[in-house]
Design brief:
This protein has helices at about 15-25, 65-70, 85-95, and strands at about 1-10, 25-35, 40-45, 50-60, 75-80. It has about 100 residues and is α+β, with helices and mostly antiparallel strands. It has a five-stranded mixed sheet. The protein is globular.
Length: about 100
């Protein structure tokens, strides 16, 4: 299993992109709005790299990322792993009393 991306909650995605681009030299690989999650996301990294950074900006005052920012402020929100057997991994987590947040 390997890390796919690290999710970072930000208040302003443009400021986040500017910071990671200037400080780390990362490029925007993909941007989109995910209405179901109430976020705007931008993946940053190097083309072809195994892992990336996902910036998450809430679209409004509701949703998990908006709540996270209100309670904790900007910062690391999640780590996503690449799994060759997601169904098996999720079953193992549930069996161990650690149900995934988004089944």
């Amino acid at each position: 299993m390997r890390i796919d991306h690290v999710g970072v909650a930000v208040k302003d995605i443009r400021e986040g992109i500017r910071f990671y681009s200037e400080a780390l030299g990362l490029s925007v690989l993909h941007e989109e709005e995910v209405a179901a999650q109430k976020v705007r996301v931008a993946f940053l990294g190097e083309p072809g790299a195994e892992a990336s950074i996902e910036l998450l900006e809430p679209l409004g005052a509701e949703g998990a990322v908006a709540k996270f920012l209100a309670e904790r402020g900007p910062g690391m929100h999640h780590v996503a792993f690449h799994s060759p057997d997601i169904a098996g991994d999720m079953a193992r987590l549930r069996a161990g009393g650690r149900p995934p947040l988004d089944a």
